[in-house]
Recover the amino acids of this structure.
């Protein structure tokens, strides 16, 4: 079995071409799984059906026409797969990074990988970005991978502090059919409010996965100097002595994470904690393992 | 003031940066630390950090002080005692350096400079040592530093602008020597000058005593308008057997607007022509005068501009004289030498070519060139005539071995000719040694392209100098690569013989087709004929030979009297053959011959450029003082040791501080851990 070095997210996400990033990460990841179901799926022929007005004439099987003198169009397996919606938090707090990569960049790379993976499985891929409101919404459609990747590459500037409730409510309303919804956020909200907002995504029976993105510094508070800390979202300034508050801070953060996991689990929402120092392949593997194995998101 | 026995250890003070950097790293950040969300930080009860900051500052102070004291301790401070305090001339040593260069003669400048100099002297305190020096490109210390300020003021009374260019370096060097010898606390040089930018060369090499300040008092006129004659060239033309000179003068003008002036040409005291000239603003122009008939011998010429603010550069002096052709007889079947000498007119060669040498042809000639077939087969009478020609001051240039001469002519060179040496086997000989310091070849010393080694000689004849030939004036000017003589020179009577040992016929040697050939033959011919090439003019400050070897046989060993432009006779010391030109004008050289010679001296062209130098530029050009402090009194090692106990105290303080720092730091560390 060939081994492949893990891709450092700080390095791989310096690449502007998210399509290339996703391909590199996912293909490397899939090659190590040995259970891929997506081999050859993109060209799998499903059936013929008679041509009807409005069908794309490029799908007409001209050879069959030559033999039967009737129009038939080809249908492929992908046309019937599930929808996959990525909901990405782009609020100001996601722009923090203490190890050379911001949470937003990490989440963006992760989202690209998931989109690529889903698209490879012939799922319909969509994207929604939000801060305090929905900033962009690409409904899940087949063949939208390029749109999604382009949107991930060109994210708008945040409008300020992020909130989960209204944007996720709108995302739930916009979803027309059940599917998989993956939320990538740092979840800086009270657990109850966050869970309520996430619960809305289960509208129409969608399966919701929460990728909780955190920077290592947000869990450890590793600062030495006495400093005035600035809240990236609100701009508030709070003086603090890190040495003195570190342990209490760490306990509060861990309690917050645990509360979220517990409450979301109660609603059958998968909660996956991801630190930006974790290589993308590892993050993907954990995500898929928690979903029951395989490479299908 | 305390002094240090090992001041280099003060470099350890740089280590102060270490605790400061550590503190900076540990101290409270001045800029806010961004963080994604402070929702958890806010929930932590507020805890004061003020005390920790104060602790840091105390630690920083202790560590910094420890480093400083450690450096001072190793530098071993002591308080020197100045021996003989009474001998001190004053607390301030001041040298007033007054510019007396030619440019200071611009209207109104020198009186202003004098007033400033007097002011600098008068403002000195009674105990200050004040000296006065006058400088141009030379420094003249007219009043060494003294507390008697009256001497300094008296020295200024005799000051007047001269004719020499400005250079700051000599003045600063003399001032540095004076100030370095003083035992004073402060040293100051007051430089009063019109500050020409050309005066800076050499300044960066001057080292001033420690603590010396230079105060520049610029006195340049705020707006100058000065015209000057910067150069003159003379073209000789002949007509109807008479020789004329066409004089062209280059005029420069430094002034904001074009103006018209008049330029006058005078030759031998007679006005030849006066012309109106328009001078461009801050530019130059040239004016060519009508031709002037040349009197016999050398005569004085002047181009005079209408007087302006700086009068000394309005007159340009030069010497006119008959071009003095070198009357040359060439007995050489090859055309190379004749063609080379036909080119050029400084000097020009009046050439008479003959297939064979005849006694009658020597008449009126000053130089004979003998080629390959020139000397063999000469009759005894012709040989004798040739020897007599040389002994009476004529020159002989042999472009082939001087073989076959008879009688006295055989002794023209103190040596004997031997067999031919063939170098056909090794593609010819080259010149391995050339005496470029010899007067005849000196012109090639710094000239590019004069590559003597390129010439090839397929055959040459051995020349064996006789014993004691050196005392007979034999000199070897060039040798082949095997060490044998290639070009020799000797004096014979009053004349001179220069001879090649290989024929310059283009067959046995390719020297005639080398680029070097033309200037080489010109120089050798001029040298052999002892032709004097009188320059048109010199610049003030130049050294000019007025008697001795350089002047040729005709004037060697004659008593020489030099009359300065002011009309004063200058006497030459024993063994001195030259003078330094001190003033613009004509120096007249008189010996016991019937002819008089003139040397023209003119101002340095740079003095006419009155562009003032930025005083800061001068201050920046002076190298920082590197000399040791000479005003402290030397003490014995034992005395120094007795006075340096301060280091023990400093070291003790360091130990105490480090102990306190350790205790303090540990206490803080334990508190942090708990």
């Amino acid at each position: 079995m060939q081994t492949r070095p893990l891709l450092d997210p700080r390095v791989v996400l310096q690449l502007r071409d998210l399509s290339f990033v996703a391909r590199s990460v996912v293909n490397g990841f899939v090659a190590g799984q040995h259970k891929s179901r997506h081999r050859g799926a993109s060209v799998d022929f499903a059936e013929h059906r008679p041509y009807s007005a409005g069908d794309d004439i490029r799908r007409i099987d001209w050879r069959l026409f030559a033999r039967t003198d009737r129009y038939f169009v080809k249908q492929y397996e992908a046309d019937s797969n599930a929808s996959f919606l990525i909901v990405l938090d782009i609020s100001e707090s996601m722009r923090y990074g203490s190890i050379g990569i911001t949470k937003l960049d990490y989440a963006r790379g992760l989202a690209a990988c998931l989109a690529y993976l889903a698209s490879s499985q012939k799922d319909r891929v969509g994207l929604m970005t939000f801060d305090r409101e929905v900033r962009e919404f690409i409904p899940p459609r087949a063949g939208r991978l390029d749109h999604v990747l382009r949107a991930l590459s060109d994210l708008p500037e945040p409008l300020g502090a992020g909130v989960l409730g209204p944007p996720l409510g709108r995302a739930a309303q916009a979803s027309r059919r059940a599917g998989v919804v993956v939320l990538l956020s740092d979840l800086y909200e009270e657990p109850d409010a966050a869970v309520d907002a996430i619960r809305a995504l289960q509208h129409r029976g969608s399966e919701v996965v929460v990728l909780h993105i955190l920077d290592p510094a947000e869990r450890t508070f590793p600062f030495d100097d006495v400093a005035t800390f600035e809240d990236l979202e609100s701009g508030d300034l709070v003086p603090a002595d890190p040495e003195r508050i570190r342990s209490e801070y760490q306990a509060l953060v861990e309690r917050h994470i645990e509360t979220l996991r517990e409450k979301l689990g109660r609603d059958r929402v998968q909660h996956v904690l991801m630190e930006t120092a974790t290589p993308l392949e590892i993050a993907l593997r954990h995500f898929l393992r928690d979903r029951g194995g395989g490479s299908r998101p | 003031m305390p002094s240090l026995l090992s001041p280099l250890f003060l470099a350890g003070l740089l280590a102060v940066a270490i605790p400061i950097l550590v503190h900076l790293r540990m101290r409270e950040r001045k800029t806010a630390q961004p963080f994604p969300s402070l929702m958890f930080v806010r929930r932590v009860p507020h805890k004061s950090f003020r005390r920790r900051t104060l602790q840091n500052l105390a630690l920083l102070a202790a560590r910094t002080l420890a480093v400083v004291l450690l450096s001072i301790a190793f530098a071993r401070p002591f308080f020197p005692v100045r021996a003989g305090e009474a001998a001190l001339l004053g607390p301030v040593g001041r040298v007033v350096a007054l510019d007396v260069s030619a440019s200071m003669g611009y209207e109104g400048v020198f009186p202003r400079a004098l007033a400033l100099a007097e002011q600098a002297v008068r403002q000195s305190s009674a105990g200050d040592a004040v000296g006065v020096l006058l400088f141009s490109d030379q420094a003249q210390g007219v009043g060494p530093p003294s507390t008697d300020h009256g001497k300094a003021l008296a020295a200024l009374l005799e000051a007047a602008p001269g004719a020499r260019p400005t250079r700051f370096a000599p003045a600063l060097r003399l001032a540095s020597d004076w100030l370095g010898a003083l035992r004073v606390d402060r040293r100051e040089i007051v430089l009063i000058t019109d500050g020409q930018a050309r005066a800076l060369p050499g300044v960066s090499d001057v080292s001033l005593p420690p603590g010396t300040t230079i105060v520049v008092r610029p006195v340049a006129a705020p707006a100058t308008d000065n015209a000057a004659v910067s150069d003159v060239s003379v073209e000789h033309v002949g007509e109807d057997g008479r020789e004329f000179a066409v004089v062209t003068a280059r005029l420069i003008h430094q002034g904001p607007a074009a103006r018209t002036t008049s330029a006058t040409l005078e030759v031998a005291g007679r006005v030849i022509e006066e012309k109106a000239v328009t001078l461009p603003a801050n530019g130059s122009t040239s004016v060519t005068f009508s031709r002037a008939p040349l009197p016999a011998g050398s005569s004085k010429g002047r181009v005079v501009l209408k007087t302006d603010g700086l009068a000394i550069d309005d007159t340009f002096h030069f010497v006119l004289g008959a071009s003095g052709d070198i009357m040359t007889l060439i007995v050489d079947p090859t055309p190379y030498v004749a063609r080379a000498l036909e080119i050029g007119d400084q000097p020009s060669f009046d050439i008479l070519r003959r297939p064979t040498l005849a006694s009658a042809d020597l008449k009126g000639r000053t130089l004979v060139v003998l080629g390959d077939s020139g000397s063999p087969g000469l009759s005894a009478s012709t040989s004798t005539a040739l020897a007599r020609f040389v002994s009476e001051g004529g020159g002989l240039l042999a472009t082939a071995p001087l073989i076959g001469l008879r009688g006295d002519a055989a002794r023209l060179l103190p040596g004997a000719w031997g067999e031919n040496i063939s170098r056909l086997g090794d593609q010819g000989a080259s010149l391995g040694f050339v005496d470029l310091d010899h007067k005849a070849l000196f012109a090639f010393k710094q000239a590019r392209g004069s590559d003597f080694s390129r010439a090839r000689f397929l055959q040459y004849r051995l020349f064996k100098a006789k014993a004691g030939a050196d005392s007979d004036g034999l000199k070897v000017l060039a040798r082949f690569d095997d060490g044998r003589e290639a070009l020799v020179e000797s004096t014979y009577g009053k004349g001179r013989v220069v001879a090649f040992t290989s024929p310059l016929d283009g067959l046995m040697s390719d020297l005639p087709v080398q680029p070097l050939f033309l200037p080489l033959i010109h120089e050798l011919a001029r040298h052999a004929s002892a032709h004097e090439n009188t320059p048109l003019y010199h610049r003030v400050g130049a050294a000019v030979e007025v008697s001795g070897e350089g002047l040729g046989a005709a004037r060697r060993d004659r008593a020489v009297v030099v009359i300065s432009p002011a009309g004063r006779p200058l006497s030459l010391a024993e063994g001195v053959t030259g003078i330094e030109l001190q003033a613009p004008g004509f120096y007249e050289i008189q010996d016991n011959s019937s002819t008089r010679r003139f040397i023209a001296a003119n101002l340095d062209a740079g003095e006419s450029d009155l562009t003032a130098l930025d005083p800061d530029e001068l201050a920046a050009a002076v190298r920082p003082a590197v000399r040791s402090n000479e005003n402290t009194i030397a003490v014995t090692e034992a005395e120094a040791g007795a006075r340096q106990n301060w280091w023990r105290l400093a070291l003790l303080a360091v130990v105490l501080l480090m102990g306190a720092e350790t205790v303090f730091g540990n206490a803080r560390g334990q508190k942090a851990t708990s």
